[in-house]
Amino acid sequence: MRATPTAIGYLRKDVSGISQDWDEIQIRSRAKRLGYDLAKTVTFSAETIDPEGRLVNVVQALDVDAVIAPSIEHLGGDVPQRLVRQCELNTVNPEATYAPHGPFRFVDVDGA
């Protein structure tokens, strides 16, 4: 188990449009506030085939604890259950957390 939980950012270029840089800043900020080490940000476009499946593959390959997205619209407008079975999903706007069912791994951020 890593000392600091790890997350990846996720966004769709076509949803972000000219706000992509701002969305990436917001993802980094939310990761920091939640205590995640942000490993990378994955970006897909409207032409990406099976973006949910590809995102799940990245989550599994990197063994991350969470995905942070600017909004649910970047994930097709619905909370993808296939993703949430693998890791926690956090959104920036609105600030929301969708957690997998089952036991949680709690991290002691105070070190006590």
What structural keywords apply?
112 residues; alpha/beta; five-stranded mixed beta sheet; 5 strands
Mean pLDDT: 90
Low-pLDDT stretches are 103-108
Helices and strands, in order, run as: EHHEHEHEE
Overall morphology: globular
Percentage of residues in strands: 15-25%
What is the count of helical runs? Answer: 4
What percent of residues adopt helix (DSSP H or I)? 25-40%
Kindly state the number of beta strands.
Answer: 5
Structural class: alpha/beta
Short characterization:
The protein is an alpha/beta fold and 112 residues long.
Characterization of the model:
The protein is α/β, with parallel strands linked by helices. It has helices at 13-16, 20-34, 51-62, 81-84; strands at 6-12, 37-44, 66-69, 88-91, 96-98. It has a 5-stranded mixed sheet, sandwiched between helices.
Task: Please describe the topology of this protein.
Layout (H helix, E strand, L loop, with lengths): L5 E7 H4 L3 H15 L2 E8 L6 H12 L3 E4 L11 H4 L3 E4 L4 E3 L14
Parallel strand pairs: 1-2, 1-3, 3-4
Antiparallel strand pairs: 4-5
